[in-house]
Amino acid sequence: MADDIFADATAFGFETRAIRAGQRHDAATGAVVTPISLATTFVQEEPGVHRGYEYSRTNNPTRQALQECLASLEGAAHGLAFASGMSAEDTLLRTLSPGDHIVLGNDAYGGTFRLISAILAPAGIEWSAADLTDPAELRAAMRPETKVVWIETPTNPLLTVVDIAAIAEVTHAGGAKLVVDNTFATPYLQQPLNQGADVVVHSTTKYCGGHSDVVGGFVATNDTELAERLAYLQNAIGAVGSPFDNYLTLRGLKTLAVRMDRHCENARAVVDLLLGSDKVTHVLYPGLPDHRGHEAASRQMKDFGGMVSFRVKGGADAAMRLTTTTEVFSLAESLGAVESLIEHPGVMTHASAAGSEL
Ligand SMILES: *Cc1c(COP(=O)(O)O)cnc(C)c1O
């Protein structure tokens, strides 16, 4: 990455790096856009002598461009792109061994909860959940075997905010590493590595891709030893996206900054509309001063994001009715991208949160 001047976060701003970092003009043709390199294998001058690419599972020029770009946006020395957010998480957690313990925020993404409780736990990984809005709860949950503390901030659907710096301090005091799922905030609004986190993971399927047309995942870190282990696992396990997937995600990143600015602006308009409605009983948005995480969010985020949760009068029946009557917002899972989505988390993505109090 050293030859890429645009990777340097101190020399160029976020928008410039989103468009240029890792994206060298094509040496053969001068093309200004990163080519989609479909080749599965690359010619060698002599056995073992090549130009950095051997076989596309191991590395691929389109994936490499994406990896350098998103790592730069996260302020990370290393980044690895995967076939999905879940495969990024799975590959990362395979650095653990049986007997190691994970502390998971108690309203983690459902897929993360499933991966840890249904796939890793039977393979001998220990885990427990805790309310990580309170660093004292983490201190109580840490064990000598704790290797990873895993948080999201903000979370879905309650938009809970976790103080990254405070949690990093307790995590490190216990000799563990802090992983932050930064899918909701994106590196444009929040850079967890600069707040003390050790690893950032993404579902790039969401805002990074931004157009609801590509599934992908990412891991970023400044820990060189961990990055080497992850590159080994990435090649050994093979959960990599296609060159076209990587191209689409890289294309999405170019407009991430302008899209996030508009998402935040639009979320504020939706919040104002909901607050003015007599059919709405609660509005959850980290930008509201009465939100529990407002103070931490103001400290660690550039703005408050594009997700809004609310509770309507009339309970579950009224909520179900509302989700099927909106005209511009489509009823679908995920965060929305250039289009807007509405969902009922208790029934769709967060059955485990059904009936919970706000
Ligand atoms: C969607 C999502 C994931 C999983 O990513 P996929 O790309 O769907 O595999 C992980 N974490 C969060 C916060 C998500 O929203």
Structural write-up:
It is a single chain. With 358 residues, this protein is of the alpha/beta class. The chain has a domain at 256-353: Aspartate Aminotransferase, domain 1, CATH 3.90.1150. Helices cover 34% and strands 14% of the residues. It is built from twelve helices and eleven strands. It has helices at 14-20, 61-73, 85-93, 110-120, 135-141, 164-173, 186-189, 224-237, 243-253, 256-275, 294-300, 315-323; strands at residues 78-82, 101-105, 126-130, 146-152, 177-181, 199-203, 217-221, 280-284, 309-312, 330-331, 341-342. The protein has a seven-stranded mixed β-sheet, sandwiched between helices. The longest helix is centred in the C-terminal third of the chain and has 20 residues, at 256-275. The chain is globular. Pyridoxal-5'-phosphate binds at residues 84-86, 109, 111-112, 152, 181, 183, 203, 205-206, 215, 217. Residues 84-86, 109, 111-112, 152, 181, 183, 203, 205-206, 215, 217 line the site of pyridoxal-5'-phosphate.
Oligomer status = single chain
The number of E-state strands comes to: 11
Overall shape: it is: globular
Each distinct ligand: pyridoxal-5'-phosphate
Look at the helices and sheets and give the structural class: alpha/beta
Write down the secondary-structure element order.
Answer: HHEHEHEHEHEHEEHHHEHEHEE
Please tell me the overall pLDDT.
94
Question: What keyword list fits this structure?
Answer:
358 residues, alpha/beta, Aspartate Aminotransferase, domain 1, 7-stranded mixed β-sheet, two-stranded antiparallel sheet, 12 helices, 34% helix, globular, binds pyridoxal-5'-phosphate
